[in-house]
Amino acid sequence: MAKAIFITGGASGIGQAVARFFAARGWFVGLADVNAAGLAATRAMLPDGMATTHVMDVRDRDQWATALAEFTAASGGRLDVLFNNAGIAIGGPLANASGEEIDRIVGINLTGVINGARAAYPHLKATPGSALVNTASAAAIYGSGGLALYAAVKFGVRGLSEALDCEWAADGIRVRVVMPSFIDTPLLDSNVSGTNYTARDAVRAAKLEFTPLDEVAQQIWDGIERDKVHVIIGKTARRLAFAARWMPGGLRKQMRRGRGMG
């Protein structure tokens, strides 16, 4: 029986790229998202008979249980990797954020990841050599002005991953947290709260790089095998990690000036 990966946020972006990468290597793929049309488009990119689709909201625990039960029934009982990847982006100062925006980003980006980890645990434990892979962000390395909400939830995902790496080691479950810098995905098309420009516009204005999706998928594949919790992807993320470790005072000053890592 082929190895099996279940991917949230599978309708586009990193989730779609990872689905294509793993399927090309013979893995059975479960695709989950709220976007049914996007799921169908991703599935059409994969070999026939090698994928299932699940329209679900990661905030709903019952939908998690149903989707994973359906997927493991189709995969022969295997769940080798849960890729907890679904997420949204909200930018702008915290003072400008609405209550609805706060609840939505916390619900999807943090509670959704916790729900996925809890729902997947018995399936991962029953599959030798399995892994939980959570998508965080370079924003989980050091918080940036204008990304307070996004940094908060991504730091939460990082902390959860580090804790589960300890808790689940005895069960033989590897845990990884992916911390990419800027990837050319639909997330960057979201408007910065209180402005008329997008996150993509801000990245371009700062002259920062976009990491290609194929490179992200390759590094996630490689990162599962390496014995490190953190999978840091992209030049900006690597520079940020270096500065946070070796020159935190200088990094703080730079962030306060609003220059980021450009």
Automatic annotation (TrEMBL):
Swiss-Prot/TrEMBL keywords: Oxidoreductase
UniProt keyword ATP-binding present: no
Sections of the chain in a coiled coil: none
InterPro entries assigned: NAD(P)-bd_dom_sf, SDR_fam
Keyword Oxidoreductase belongs to the record: yes
Family affiliation: Belongs to the short-chain dehydrogenases/reductases (SDR) family.
Record protein name field: SDR family oxidoreductase
The organism of origin for this protein: Sphingomonas rustica
